[in-house]
Design a protein that fits this description.
This protein has 238 residues and is an alpha/beta fold. The chain has ten helices and eight strands.
């Protein structure tokens, strides 16, 4: 089943809580990123979890293997639904994250790996010394991640068709940069609509400002859900 993950990109826990209260419980999943985690801390995450929300803790851990393993264990202790690391950390780091989650007790969150940020294009990759195109870099890092046993990757929906064909239906493809028709691109470069993302093979759609800045967030979410239902096959497949 395709899930919508709303990015809670708010400057404070108070404004984030006020926004979440405008949504029907469990109508989507929620993503907590760096700013909100730094300001609200683990307590903010556990409050959402205790309320019944599935939380994607989007901190993109990228460090030496032991440090990332410890961070993943700490994230699991918060009861989050999904946690991510950065595939650029390498095979040993990815494997350490996988082992840390597998050996934990209690909640075992999904583990995904960030490939190439959707704010990147070919020129910005060249500026940091990567001569691959975004698609080439994504494919290489996705293979590295799959080999290490992660549950899926974070990628642009533009790269999703090839990844879906390569890794099969069980591999999660978490796609940021989703913009409904008419929404502003903001700082994203590789963006698609929800319908395009689903047709490309995405399993989880990360959507932020088109919902969080809407006058009626619940209505904006419902509109996207309707587009998903129209796009999702009716033959019983997810």
């Amino acid at each position: 089943m395709t899930s919508v993950i709303i990015a809670l990109d708010f400057p404070s826990p108070q404004t984030a809580h006020a926004f979440v209260e405008r949504l029907p419980l469990r109508s989507c999943r929620l993503k907590v990123g760096k700013e909100l985690f730094v300001r609200g801390g683990p307590q903010f995450v556990t409050q959402l979890v205790d309320q019944g929300w599935d939380v994607f803790l989007d901190l993109k851990f990228h460090d030496i293997p032991n440090t990332v393993a410890a961070a993943c264990r700490a994230a699991a202790d918060l009861g989050v639904w999904m946690v991510n690391v950065h595939a650029l950390g390498g095979r040993a780091m990815l494997a350490a994250a996988r082992n840390a989650i597998d050996q934990g007790v209690g909640t075992q969150p999904l583990l995904t790996a960030v490939t190439v940020l959707t704010s990147h294009d070919a020129a910005s990759l060249r500026a940091i010394g990567l001569n691959d195109t975004p698609a080439q870099a994504v494919n290489r890092l996705a293979q590295l991640s799959a080999d290490a046993g992660v549950d899926g990757v974070v990628c642009s929906a533009q790269e999703a068709p090839e990844l879906r064909a390569q890794f099969g239906p069980a591999f999660r493809l978490v796609t940021p940069g989703i913009r409904p028709h008419g929404a502003a691109a903001d700082d994203q470069h590789r963006i698609v609509t929800p319908a395009m993302a689903l047709q490309a093979g995405a399993s989880d759609l990360v959507i932020g400002r088109p919902i969080t800045r809407a006058d009626d967030p619940a209505a904006a979410l419902q509109s996207i859900d309707s587009e998903i239902r129209l796009t999702t096959p009716t033959d019983g497949s997810d």
